[in-house]
Amino acid sequence: MIDKAQRLSYTQQAYALLQKLSLTEKVFMMSGNKKAKELLAEMQANAEKHYNYRPYPAGGLPEKNIPAMNFVDGPRGVVCDTGQTTCFPVSMLRGASFDTELEEKIGHAIGLETKAYGGNTFAGVCINLPYNPGWGRSQETYGEESFHLGKMGSALVTGVQAEAVIACVKHYAFNSMECSRFKVAIKMDKRTEREVFLPHFKDCVDAGAGSIMSAYNAYQGVPCGHSDYLLNQVLKKEWDFDGFVMSDFFWGIRDTVAAANGGQDIEMCTTEWFGNKLVEAVRNGQVLEETIDQATLRILRTLLAFEAERSKVPADQTVVGSKKHRQLALQSAREGITLLKNKEQVLPLVANRIRKIVVFGHLADKELTGDQGSSAVRPAYVITPLQGIANAFPKAEVIQYDGQDLEYAKQLATKADATIFVVGYNYDDEGEFVSKSEETNYTGARGGDRVNGLGLHADEVQLIKAVGPVNQNSTVVLVGGNTIIMTEWEAKVSAILMAYYPGMEGGTALGEIIAGQVNPSGKIPYVIPYAEADLPQVNWQTDQQVYDYYHGYAKLEKEGVVPLRPYGYGLSYTTFDISMVTFFKTEDQVKAQAIIKNTGNREGTEVVQLYVGFTNSKIDRPVKLLRGFQRVSLAPGAEKTIEISCLIDKLKWFNPELNEWQLEQMTYEMYLGTSAAKQDLMVGEITL
After folding, report:
1. In total, how many domains does the chain have?
2. Looking at the domain assignment, is residue 534 inside a domain?
3. Residue where one domain finishes, among candidates 258, 292, 312
């Protein structure tokens, strides 16, 4: 891992190089290497390829031994169009694993594949917080909880940068809408900004991230890519960020002077506003050359530090899509797929008793890897749900029917030993939104936010309600990037699995879980309410949006609303008991210690969660917030003593009047258990 101290040690070398550069050369280091029209023409000429089919360069002066910043996208893996890249599950599924160790391993794999493709910067650490789960791109982030986002994002940063690849964290900040992302101006109060939407970005900066990507949207009336407050004051001065800031592609900068003075270091991925326009702005006094020097120094220092480490280990082409990396993708899918209902332990299906399975739904034989925008990865193969189920039940007849004729579907269900409904979304329902115009929609998918609501399609609801009750061994497999409302049909089936978008080996993991070869251990990293009205309301087509302090499970708890499924919820095929719970404090941490025991008859993994409560606060604060978690794997009958800790700094609130973080001297409730639901938690207290 190339830490901050190591990067800063290259300051003098970078400064010496800087002194040898002309103004034009320095600005060149701050600019993408093509004009937008040239790049769009290239994309159209290579329409059969993904638009991100090779790394995008910015800067680079070979004659002076200065490398370019070679950018590749993510976060499901390296976005290069070779048809070989490892396609990991989407970040939301990885968030459901609550496995930071696995996420760091995935980061290592992505770092290695980035190097193999000639990239040195991976822009796949997406940690935006979905204010409303209808955000089409929320599949690219880890969940609704800031603390969890910070932990998972930091793990990915650590893994990627351990392979001498710069991790770029995006989209800074408040990017939680697709359809209006180019025009919307976000507003919120200072406490919401500091306590809800920014902490996870600071966590990744503290973890050593070398780059930050600014967002398209405006904040408090100023585009994020021009924001002196966000880029200069908060990120670079307050958080002491030593790396460089790049804009989001094409439209991330809209004014030369405002962007340069606002703290933008690199215009990506083309040059429209920097380049000659920025040189002219310096010469006419609108931008100080000192500003250019500071930006170029950040770029040079970061590139030199990482290049020195990269040169020690040559790129290895054989790692791309390697067996080891595919196994990581499979492990991730196994850990993240979440069991939401299992009435009378219908699952797992006993293979030797199953002779015929009917799989309903048009998604069953589709490659369910997620959005087809900038995060789309092209693997050598994808195991579909239908393939995975058939592989897991080799002696059974597995047939698929889309379910259009409900009477025929009922007949099929009556004659089957089990029915499985694969329903939900694809890249046309939710994902990155660019434009409806064919000329500018370079992603090739419709995408956008879920403007029609958070439920299933009407025909899927009808199918489940009509056919689900026909066979008691009925399972719904949900496909999607975030909360799917289940209220209307949840009682009609015996089991429900949330598969998210499970990556290239997702079908394999799904089949294994249904057959009981793998015990599910995922936990939903968001709340599922009974009604959409319980969540914050968003106008997806707007130029103004206010984000309030409360969202997700914190909002429901504050308002006394019981969810259909709580944050952190997920079932297992075994049972666990948590006992001997104690809470205590050290000089800088609060801790929980307990014994967890597997009380069932099969091996399993539980995610133990630590929450801290604030009901004694004299100010408006959440009922409780997640402040720690740990995965624990146990054999039947085995037990383990665990300890989960949280920095006391993470209990502070932001005082907007004094513009500082403060710790309340009071008694805090402490909760330890298996979800955010009261009945799943053991309670204690600590006084600080």
Report:
1. 3
2. no
3. 312
